[in-house]
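Morning. Coffee machine broken again, so started the prediction first thing and wrote up yesterday's gels while waiting. Chain of 541 residues, entered below exactly as on the submission form.
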Amino acid sequence: MPRLDETQVDHSARQDLAHRDPARQDLNAVPQGEDFGSRVELALGATNHLLNARNSPRYVAQVLQGVTAVATKLERTTQPFTGVGPADMRTRVGAVDLDTPLPDTAAALQELEDVYLRDAVYFHDSKYAAHLNCPVVIPALVGEAILSAVNSSLDTWDQSAGATMIERRLIDWAAERLHLGAAADGIFTSGGSQSNLQALLIARNHAVAGLRQDPALAGLRLPALLDTLRIFTSEDSHFSVQKSASMLGLGFDAVITVPCSADHRMDPAALATAMAEAHGAGLTAMAVVATAGTTDFGAVDPLAELAALARAYGAWFHIDAAYGGGLMVSGRYRHLLDGSGLADSVTVDFHKTFFQPVSSSALLVREAAMLRHITYYADYLNPESAALADIPNQVDKSIQTTRRFDALKLWLTLRIMGADAIGALFDEAIDLAARVGSVLEADDDFELAAAPQLSTLVFRYRPVLDSGARLSDEDADALNPAIRAAIFASGKAVVAGTKVGGRHYLKFTLLNAEATLGDITDIITLLRSTGAGLLQKETTA
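Came back before lunch.
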């Protein structure tokens, strides 16, 4: 707004405030030491930034500036990263004076170019092949814009109304795709780690309820009942299983890791042995956590066999399908999720293989009644009387209280693109990984740790030297992390790293349906030349 002189501001502001609040008629009594006029001017100016009917043109204009800045950046970006280091970024961000605002949105976006946009890691780039970060679909970005502006909170019905029903409908849709049955239910969460935590919280409380059927244990408080509880999962499962065990009061050592077979799937025979040994030692099988898409190898555990073992010992059967959940809409690989309907609970990350912006995850349970294990009623928010009246307060099912309407992104994606189109994108990524796997397997300079199963490949650069001998394991352990670091510093590509059998490997995670075999072979060429250069430098040093 145009700047008025102090007399004008003071007079008009007092009139405006008096009009809004008749109880404040005596506005001439200014507290000593306060510059009333300037503070009122500031308050009035600040109201121009509130989203409301009056400011809707301003909202459109400023959001379009932000969208244009991103679109322009995407058009001009030619590689996934600039290679900037932490020290440089720390200096630039630290130099910003957060107590002194910039004059307008254009200036703030110009500054943002320097402290964020220029040096962001761009997952849409075909040379990004590192982690489980997907390029996002435009319908979901439309949803993101809407949900941020309306700002519904998905904890109670009186804050969300239609949003509540959309989320519930999507939960029903996902449960149906996973064959969990008519009694299934669930909740959207912030991500796979929270989904796994909530699943294991329910599993813990379910197991404790079972222990309390023993009259000798009925009067014991919860901590006294946790000591014997055990969780069984594969050695390749996600670290959130161990973190959840710790946060649930069980301790890291309550997780019994089960060996995998050569294809990196949990070995059912090894699980049977581990569960029998635990039972013989007087321990209680609280849960079996299978993985549908391990982070490194994309392995899908033999779900039906593991479910049978869990049932035999009365254990909760949870499937962590944070990565592999996208198979539920796959046109060619849906069979890999066979057995999902036997689960007591399933984690799905829509912000991985459904190509949604972060964050969008869900926990689904086969029996809706099991969600009671995390329900708490508060008179000021979700009183028990509301539940008795069948008022759909989503907080009754959730670890979180305030929750974004992240389900809207998936809803618009399904309504605009359709489930088959999402599945087709994931299928393309899986097919690309298979083709890249064949290239790496045929290349004498690289070793493939295992055949690809979904869209990840674990491999290492270990060439045959001039002497005719292959680079030693020890030298390869030093070289491969150095290759990864050098390429990241160049910004030309981004790849991940991991360990297999204690040895250092590189990893591709392919989720970009527009990336071609040529794009990925270009990265392989870059890995080779970088590795050869580092070896040459070491030889001549």
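Residues 1-18, 20-30 have pLDDT under 50 and may be disordered. Going to sketch it on the whiteboard this afternoon.
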